[in-house]
Model the fold of this input.
Amino acid sequence: MTTILIADDHPLFREALRGAVQRLLPDAAILEADNAPSLLALADAHPDADLLLLDLNMPGAHGFSTLIHLRGSQPQLPVIVVSAREEPTVIRRALDHGASGFIPKSADAAHMREAIAEVLAGGSWAPPQVSQAHGIDGEEAQIAERVRELTPQQFRVLAMLSTGLLNKQIAYELNVSEATIKAHMTAILRKLGANNRTQAVLLAARLAVDPGAVPLPPEEPNAID
Done:
């Protein structure tokens, strides 16, 4: 049975994607997530899924970072990015970071089905305006490679750090000790090549759709020691 994962925080658009899949593959198993943490859990629970339809801007997903993490941890899972951001540069960045396709949210149902069918067949699909954009630069590609090296828990910590949470708040959300979060932070800084929390967030922000919109973390004494 074909298994399709849909990750989007808008119920109406999840319904539209579900309808497109059902018309193309009536017997497919469709599993849904409405935020990045639940998506990561869903992907871990279904490593044999055939396709992920991924929204770029849902809670816990900061631009391309979730795409990059999943392509590193589950390279067997093809991903089609689905987004209301239709600029050629955004489409090009998604493809350069490992997406097999890109569906604008303005696309009609026929184009959605065409894209899904093409990627399930092993191909790729993107709207024609992608040809107007240059590929990602070397700095962004290097940061993406570093993010791929993070473990799933380290990636979750970095994502929470990028929302402005303190170590004790992250520890509470993940139900672990603050000392554990400090240990993760030490590993994150090492893997990213960052000297402090602010620099780590700035590096990760390069993978956002709008890098300038990512908040810097608050100062926190003894954050990693």
Q: What stands out?
A: The first strand starts at residue 3 and ends at 7.
